[in-house]
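We were asked to recover a plausible sequence for a given structure. The inputs and outputs are reproduced exactly as logged, with field labels preserved.

PROBLEM: sequence recovery
POSITIONS: 434
GIVEN STRUCTURE:
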């Protein structure tokens, strides 16, 4: 189990060079194979997992199993993971032209057996597994990485007696992608802190000059600084404005259309949606800044109260995280409690990890507040990370209108409680106009 207390590491003072981070990625991957995967295979009752990809058409799961120096599959990479049981170590084989670093042993000699599919079938026959998991899934895209061509060829290559043993590895694939290891969680908080630091600078007078700076200027500053820092972005950031005007908040526009360029003015409430990728892990963060009018020392009381309402909605949501509860149940309980407290909630929280919108239980979507079938029915497991994403609508008397505080903070669920990786926003970033 992952420890609940996060420790700051010395490398966090700056992004590591490529060689150092490559070594760390491989250390994490080795730990995951040794400590995370065996438990997951036994939990899902699958004793053989076959994962394969052709070069540049990679299964999302396979990409997370490749060593740091492999940026894609090579030729046709077939990986076989076999659990011999009795608490023995997993056997990891590469039915491929090349060994996969020191993670998967080379198990195919093309000169002796030209037919790669026949070599794979022989390995399966020799181990006689009870259940052979393959990555096919109707509901979860990240667990649906085997192409139809590969599946057809795979089933044809198998001896008849083994075809009935082939099952979807959906729950195993999701478990592999969603479960965080000890070593990952030593570093994940620092990655979240990188994102927060970039947002804090972007939402300051170092970047924004009211009356001159546009929302697009801030967006491209974030992109440029991410590149300079040595991390990447898994989506293009967005920066938007709410202000004291007659424009009403449009949920569809906010979530389906990127906000256009707009000059940032005194009195504006600015919102950012921003995420970075580092060490194969992703962040997803949304925060707000208020642009002080000349002479102002703080945001209007109505906005401060609106932020407090959104913070309370966060508290309600994470209090309902319980091992075994489905995403839909967490959504229903949280919305019910928020409405009873006179909060107008919209909850759309998602798992976080190897992907920004990652594998695991969906806890609402902005356009599906009643929940989602299948994805929302998936249960909550320990040692998983989430982007606590939501908004609360509040009436601001000073503006005579309703506004939305849209928050998103990265967090970890240890099976008992939720802990934010690097805290959360409880006060607005303030930008001076003086």
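RECOVERED SEQUENCE:
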């Amino acid at each position: 189990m992952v420890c609940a207390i996060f420790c700051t590491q010395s490398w966090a003072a700056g992004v590591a060079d490529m060689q150092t981070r490559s070594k760390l990625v491989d250390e994490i991957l080795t730990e995951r194979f040794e400590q995370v995967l065996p438990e997951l295979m036994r939990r899902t009752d699958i004793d053989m997992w076959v994962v394969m990809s052709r070069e540049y058409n990679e299964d999302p799961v396979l990409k997370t199993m490749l060593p740091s120096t492999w940026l894609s599959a090579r030729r046709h990479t077939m990986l076989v993971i076999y659990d011999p049981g009795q608490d023995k170590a997993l056997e990891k084989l590469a039915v491929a032209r090349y060994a996969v670093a020191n993670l998967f042993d080379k198990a195919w000699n093309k000169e002796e057996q030209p037919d790669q599919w026949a070599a794979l079938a022989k390995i399966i026959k020799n181990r006689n597994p009870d259940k052979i998991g393959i990555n096919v899934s109707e509901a979860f895209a990240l667990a649906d990485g085997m192409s139809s061509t590969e599946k057809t060829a795979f089933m044809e290559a198998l001896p008849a007696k083994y075809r009935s043993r082939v099952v979807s590895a959906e729950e195993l694939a999701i478990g592999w992608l969603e479960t965080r290891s000890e070593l990952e969680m030593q570093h994940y908080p620092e990655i979240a802190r990188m994102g927060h630091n970039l947002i804090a600078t972007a939402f300051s007078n170092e970047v924004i000059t009211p009356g001159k700076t546009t929302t697009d200027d801030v967006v491209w500053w974030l992109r440029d600084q991410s590149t300079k820092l040595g991390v990447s972005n898994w989506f293009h950031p967005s920066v938007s404005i709410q202000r004291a005007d007659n424009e009403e908040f449009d949920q569809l526009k906010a979530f389906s259309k990127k906000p256009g360029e707009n000059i940032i003015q005194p009195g504006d409430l600015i919102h950012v949606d921003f995420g970075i990728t580092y060490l194969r892990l992703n962040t997803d963060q949304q925060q707000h800044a208020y642009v002080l009018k000349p002479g102002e020392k703080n945001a209007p009381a109505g906005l401060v109260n609106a932020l407090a309402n959104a913070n309370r909605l966060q508290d309600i949501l994470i209090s309902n995280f319980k091992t075994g509860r489905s995403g839909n149940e967490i959504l229903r309980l949280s919305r019910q409690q928020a409405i009873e407290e006179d909060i107008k909630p919209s909850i759309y929280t998602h798992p976080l990890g190897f992907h920004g919108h990652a594998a695991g239980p969906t806890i609402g979507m902005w356009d599906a507040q009643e929940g989602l079938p299948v994805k929302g029915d998936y249960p909550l497991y320990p040692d998983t990370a989430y982007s606590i994403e939501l908004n609360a609508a509040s009436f601001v008397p000073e503006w005579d209108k309703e506004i939305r505080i849209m928050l998103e903070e990265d967090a970890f669920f240890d099976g008992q409680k939720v802990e934010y990786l690097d805290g959360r926003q409880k006060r607005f970033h303030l930008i001076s106009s003086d």
